[in-house]
Amino acid sequence: MTADAAAPKGRATSTAQGSGPAVQLEHVSKSFDGRKVLDDVTFEIPAARAFVLLGRSGTGKSVTLKHIIGLVQPDEGRVIVEGRDLTRLDRRALSDVRKHMGFLFQNAALFDSMTVGDNVAFPLRRHTDLPEQEVRERARQKLADVGLEREFDKMPADLSGGMKKRAGLARAMALDPSILLVDEPSAGLDPITASEIDDLLVQRKRGGATLVVVTHNIPSARAVGDELALLHEGRIVARGTVEDLDRSEDPLVQAFMRSEGGG
Amino acid sequence: MHEHPLVDRVGAAVLSVLEFVGALATFGGRAIVDAFRPPFEAREIVRHLYQFGLRSMPLILMSGFAIGVVLSMHTRATLARFGAEAMIPAGLAVALVRETGPLTTGLLVSGRVGAGIGAEIGAMRVTEQIDALEANAVDAFKFLAVTRVIACMIAMPLLTTMMNFAGIFGGYVAEAAVSGMSWQLYFERSFLYLAFSDLIPATLKTIVFGYLIAVVASYLGFTTSRGTEGVGEASTRSVVMASILIILSDVILVKIIFFFYPQVPA
Fold first, then answer.
1. Distance, in angstroms, between A27 CA and closest chain B CA?
2. Residue A258 distance to chain B (closest CA, Å)
3. Does the residue B36 lie in any domain?
4. pTM metric for this prediction
5. What is the pLDDT of residue B153?
6. How do A210-214 and A227-232 pair as beta strands?
């Protein structure tokens, strides 16, 4: 099969989009029902790096991820992905940008009217010219990557929470996106599977993908992250490498970095 | 400064209703515009046609048959007073084709299909499946709402035609049981006073019913919040609102039909 057929329609086949940052948030603020969830959040993530967002529940981590894929628009500020300002794009252009991205939702968000295999095959069928047999093979391979090759024909309702999460990750990786947004990848997983998922994410990063990972799982953050940021009350209160945050004297950062809590 | 809490509340309620109507109209308008823009999502439309059309058939056929039987009994009771039993098939067919068939089909489909659309899309909203579609670079509005609107608009006239024929057959069974009338004679008499101007506009108006059912249910599904409770509410409200809109729109549509077909006696 040619590379062109496997590449999503309507996007360039190369993943590297110049030398600028892959993802950039500039002074992003967002409120819901009068409550400020993000307050002047600014960061940038170089291509092929893993950025881990830490923080207590309800501090705006998932909302930040949704800004990066354009599901939520900021009240103020700009979100720039591979050089394109999402706040200025029309629907079609936004759709083109999203073809570069994969998103694992916190609750996996598998389409419950489709089998697990069809869920993973969905982006391939929508956005590539691959023949059906090749689509199924690739979907099966993606499921094998997360240890779910035997669940291809099952419905999402028949899977456990952890299995749904892994199937969601397989779907997010189906198009081999250049940017992978992952919300709580190890939540609900046993430590061995969580470690396997971490290895998979690291592999994706080594393959050139930019990762943005939201997690509460500090061992996972240490394993995957090149840079970590701690969100607190809608603001980034600490940012740096694992070593930087380990050395921090901020009590909140210390509390996080010293916890071994899993997802 | 005098306070008028009642006026304030009424004003707020009116504004809320107007806001809802405006949002619903915008949603419905966008569905029409997007229906003519690619991609046309033919596979999804066919899937919904199967679910809305084929799977509604047993309900429609059984209901149509029962309505035909009941209408026949009522018509006989009335016409027998004037010694006009021979008019039973024609009277029943005209009543069915012009109004009873389309309206009953609309209400039944709003119950079966409207509730399903409201619940399904509502559940997709609260479980982030709609966001997942968007994240997968798919226009969720088009994929979920427009396809259902088109499928519903195609299915309604077909289901109405089935309802009409099931009703006529039910009428025949009731009549045959009482008077022993043959199927051939009953069928001939049924269509004696039935013109295309009775059949076509009345059947085609159900396209509007289909549009209303799918638009209302999809809108309520898309705007669902508050978890599973919200899903249940979306489902119930879909049925209630679609039914009311079908009945109200029927008044307008009948008036329009009479305007374009004045030969049809009012």
1. 23
2. 33
3. yes
4. 0.89
5. 98
6. unpaired
Which residues on chain A are in Cβ contact (under 8 Å) with B131? 66, 71, 105, 109
Q: How many distinct structural domains can be found in chain B?
A: 1
* Interval A109-126: pLDDT, tens: 999 999 999 999 999 999
pLDDT at A60: 92
Query: Both tokens of residue A177?
Result: 């996106």
Residue B67: domain span: 5-260
Confidence of residue A263 (pLDDT cuts 50, 70, 90): very low
Task: Using an 8 Å CB-CB cutoff, list chain B residues near A126.
Answer: 136-138
Is residue B79 within 8 A of residue B178, CB to CB? The reply is: no
Token pair, residue A250, equals 């901020």
Task: Report how far residue A71's alpha carbon sits from residue A63's, in angstroms, rounded to the nearest whole number.
Answer: 9
CATH number of A3-100+177-258: 3.40.50.300
- Domain membership of residue B266 (yes or no) is no
**Residue in A98, A109, A171 closest to B127 by CB:** A109
Mean pLDDT over the full length of chain B: 93
Please judge whether B128 and A127 are an interchain contact, meaning their C-beta atoms are less than 8 angstroms apart: no
CATH 3.40.50.300-classified regions of chain A: 3-100+177-258
Which of B123, B128, B137 has its CB closest to that of A95?
A: B137
- Calpha distance B133→A123 (Å, rounded): 9
- Are B63 and B165 a contacting pair, CB within 8 Å? no
Distance from CA of B49 to the nearest CA of A (A): 16
Q: Are B55 and B151 in contact (CB under 8 A)?
A: no
Provide, as residue numbers in chain B, all residues whose Cβ is less than 8 Å from the Cβ of A69. Answer: 135
Q: Is the residue at B116 inside a domain? A: yes
Letter string b/e over residues A3-15, b meaning 16 or more CB atoms within 10 A of that residue's CB: eeebbbeebeeeb
Q: Do B131 and A126 touch (CB under 8 A)?
A: no
Best residue of B33, B136, B228, B231 to probe chain A, by most A CBs closer than 10 Å: B136
Q: Which of A99, A106, A109 sits opposite B129 (nearest CB)?
A: A109
Helices (H) and strands (E) in chain A, counts: 10, 10
- Enter the ipTM: 0.90
> If you count them, how many residues does chain B have?
266
Query: Do the domain assignments include residue B175?
Result: yes
Cβ contact A112–B131 (<8 Å): no
d(CA A174, CA B160): 43
Give mean pLDDT, residues B47-52: 95
> Higher-confidence residue: A9 or B127?
B127
Question: Are residues A69 and B138, on separate chains, in Cβ contact within 8 Å?
Answer: no
| Percent of chain B topping pLDDT 90 | 82
User: Count of CB atoms within 10 A of residue A157's CB?
Assistant: 8
Nearest-Cα distance to chain B for A98, in Å, is 5
Are the beta carbons of A112 and B136 separated by less than 8 Å?
A: no
* Residues contacting residue A262 through CB under 8 Å, at least 6 positions apart: A186, A191, A194, A216, A217, A219, A220
Chain A: closest CA distance from residue B189 (Å): 48
